[in-house]
Amino acid sequence: MCGIAGIYSYKGRYGESRAVIEKMTEALRSRGPDDKGFYEGDRIALGFRRLSIIDLVTGNQPMHNEEKNIWVVFNGEIYNFIELRDELQRKGHEFLTKADTEVIVHCYEEYGEGFVEHLDGMFSIGIYDEKNDRLVLARDRFGKKPLHYAFLDGQLVFASEIKSMLKHPGISREMNTTSLMKYLHFEYVPAPNTIFKGIKKLMPSEMLVCENGRLRSRLYWDIPYGAEKMKVGFDEAASEIRRLLAKAVKKRMISDVPIGVFLSGGIDSSSVAALMAMESGSKVKTFNIAFTNRDYDESGPAEDVALHIGSEHNEQSFSPSTLLDVLPEITDYMDEPFADPSVLPTYLLSKMTREKVTVALGGDGGDEIFGGYPTYNAHRLYDYYSAMPGLIKTAVKGVIESLPVSSGYFGIDFKLKRFISGDGLPDGERHITWMSALKKNEIKELLKASQKDVEVDVIYGELAKYAGQSITAKADLPMYIDAKMYLQDDILVKVDRASMAVSLEVRAPFLDKELTEYAARVPIDYKTSLFGTKNILKKAVEDLLPKRIINRSKHGFSVPINVWFRNELKPLISEYLGKERLKKEGIFDADYVSRLVEEHMSRKKEHRKNLWVLLMFQIWKEKYG
């Protein structure tokens, strides 16, 4: 696992000083604390920071071919590199190292721009083809590893993280106001945009080629939800899913350094841990964190699973004050405003895990691939709700809106009020609205101080693209949207930044290409029902885990921000969301924000998401704005 950066001068000779690429590369130190490397050619400068995982001695980068006219920088892991190396050697390619990076070099030599379709792994890649004066950028299928880029006058600049991009003197910090609106709604900035006007994110499954001063791009893969569903029995499908998941876990256990697994006690991470234990010749190291607030604590189920599989279990308990102490620290690593509060415990979990291992497997992707979120059931329930006569619906809404605000973990009042907030919206918008922070009308109110005419409809640009796909089953649509937005721009960003902040590599077996392609073609009713989730996955692993874990309801990795706002976070709310400060900055309407704060503090209404989104933006702005 590494950090990469590059500057390609496609209009002439590379004219920047060596100090620029060195500064860009140094900004990525946490991604690669073990080593660094550089290459400068007539038109190119490449930088690299290394976290040694495979081939600890000869795997440094930038790496080249025999003729030294193809250069590669690469962040990630290629799980099928041994098979590819054997295949390429049979075709006459000579290898100087045992690193997976060199496979990319020769794969590009052999297959040209089609090389990426041969790779099975998580990656962001920069290839400079000196003979053809061509720069190729590519990102893995789900976007587990980040890559950002910007076009300047005659240059294409790229890097693993935005903070590295900002070290280039030609890149502006001007904010993208459309991205701000999207952030306020989604709680993250959806790709391909970033919060900065001139910086883009390479999309998952995207290849970008700059040649002869021209740019072209293509998507080389997608989740096949548009394919015809398989005619396969439930038990047969469960058996194949078990085989594919076990294979995915085994592939991700390849490492020359110590390896462990995040264990929350949920079915996803528990399945991965159990399969690791079956494959490993020694005790698997499992890692979990506990909270002193029992509503948010999952340590009990995690301990049950660890005892069941015989792992070497590691656990630490944290108080709210510990989580809040790392808030400024983790904000430094996010680069963009990011409002998923679970990044705090993810960072602490990563920090604890890194003390004993360099690589950890996790359960990310299981919910999106196998239908684990309660919103998937809610869509089925909505079909019945929407068919109610108008008078009955009005009465139901009145009862729900009058429910008192609770302070527990996503109480029934919170869930029901979310449910009716999506009434009357198209399927895609309803799904996003259930998960979002500020609604479109609220964004208009919030930004009226800085923008006279707020065109909020632009926030659904990416959603329209995904909702317009040909999906064979209506119930697949929310899972597809989550995989293409929430998973790629929230969950995977959170895990990547939190783990790489402490130089820990995290791998996701549920996002294996073979597994996800098979799962997409399984009949949707095998995954979700009106009251059931992940039905086929539960069947696939039922013999691996205790029944209480298999049947346990989903419990997200969250923190009690609704309570914090009324207690520990009060000083930060006063500091960052105070009237005078907001008026001086001129971005948000100070009176509107004050009303949100007052209503939440007095428990008149629940505004945890809205206030957290605003607070995280303000903290980010102080550092990067």
- Tell me about the biggest sheet? 6 strands, antiparallel
Write down the CATH class of the domain at 2-219: Alpha Beta
Alpha-carbon distance between the termini?
A: 29 Å
Radius of gyration: 24 Å
| Count of DSSP-assigned helices | 27
CATH fold description of the domain at 2-219: Glutamine Phosphoribosylpyrophosphate, subunit 1, domain 1
Give me the CATH architecture of the domain at 2-219, please: 4-Layer Sandwich
The share of residues in helices is 40-55%
Total beta strands: 17
The fraction of residues assigned to DSSP E strands is 15-25%
- Strand line-up across the major sheet: 2-3-1-9-8-10
Mean pLDDT score: 90
Structural class: alpha+beta
Task: Based on Cα principal axes, name the global outline.
Answer: globular
Describe the overall structure.
This protein has a domain at 2-219: Aminohydrolase, N-terminal nucleophile (Ntn) domain (Glutamine Phosphoribosylpyrophosphate, subunit 1, domain 1). 43% of the residues lie in helices and 15% in strands. The strands form three sheets. A six-stranded antiparallel beta sheet has the order 2-3-1-9-8-10. The protein has a six-stranded antiparallel beta sheet with strand order 4-5-6-7-11-12, with helices on one face. A five-stranded parallel beta sheet has the order 15-14-13-16-17, with helices on both faces. Strand 6 (121-129) and strand 7 (134-139) form a beta hairpin. Helix 18 crosses helix 19 (476-500). The model has no long low-confidence stretch (mean pLDDT 90).
